[in-house]
Amino acid sequence: MLTACGGPKDGATSCKDVNVEVGTVHSLSDALLYIANDKGYFAEQGLSVTFRSFKSAGEMIPYLAAGHLAVGAGAPSAGFYNGIARGIDIEIVADKGKLVTDYDYMPLLVSKKLYDSGQIRSVADLKGRSLAEPAPGTATASTAQALLQSVGLDYSDVKHTFLGFPDHIAALQNGSVDAALTTEPAASRALSTGAAVKLADSTTVYNGQQLAVLLYGGTFSKERSAAAQCFMNAYTHAAKDYAAAVRGGTWNGPGNQQVVDIIARNIDAKPEAVRATVPSYVDPDAMLSVDSLQRDYEFFVKHRMYKGKKKIQFESLINRNFLDTSAKLATEGK
């Protein structure tokens, strides 16, 4: 167990009774945070963690930048990188969710009516059709580009409709969109209700896409580095539990019942509803895919979604120190 902070010194000799405020979106993507809390990993590090709910990860950014929130979630979106270009003090520190083979938790869906009629049976048939995405300039756009590019099309060859993931279901059902890139749990609901059919597995064209990341506010990372290390120790412990529970892209791995129950309890869902979803992949050591982050950034630049005048410097945006120290402590059995 990781019971010692072992991180950079910031004047504190331990993390005992240190409170850390953490942003969540009350969804499946917050699984590791809930596991670390409910299994006592934060407490083992001496931390007291307070969860603060937000409607979206984007809403957390100003709070992280201002030091009003220590830890949050993020997605490699154009808006995020535009904020970095403006000088907001935030660091990407760990994995929070990837698209990996057998873990296609954001499939390409198509209206069942259009599929059954034979009008859309392949990605190539999407030319000129409407595609639902959550918002302009998200990592989903880069996923769409990879899918379209695989059949000789471009992102500009489809019409883009921006809707929150839960709204994709009704839109596919009533015909207001033809297809959608939809994350869990909305994806499974769309399939089970007969609103949609799975048209393509996103991981076949973009394996390892980094869709969600853990963020530290600069104040937390720099001025409270001991607490930041303790938090990472607990988080990586939870990552191993989660990775084991969803081994092979199902909820049937070692320790799965406890993990499912923790997630269900924290997002106000039934355990069977959690099991009905395809889990996201998280690296057992919470390691990031930097190549994916850079690939999506280049997509935003190419399509003029990124408005910054200077190129993003990923070596300063991504802070691997906390992960590296956690890995070292785990190896040493501390």
UniProtKB/TrEMBL annotation:
Major place of residence: periplasm
Coiled coil regions in record? none
Subcellular locations according to the entry: Periplasm
- Alphabetically, which GO biological process terms does the record hold? alkanesulfonate transmembrane transport
**Family to which the UniProt record says this protein belongs:** Belongs to the bacterial solute-binding protein SsuA/TauA family.
Cross-referenced PANTHER family: ALIPHATIC SULFONATES-BINDING PROTEIN-RELATED, TAURINE-BINDING PERIPLASMIC PROTEIN
Q: What name goes with this protein?
A: ABC transporter substrate-binding protein
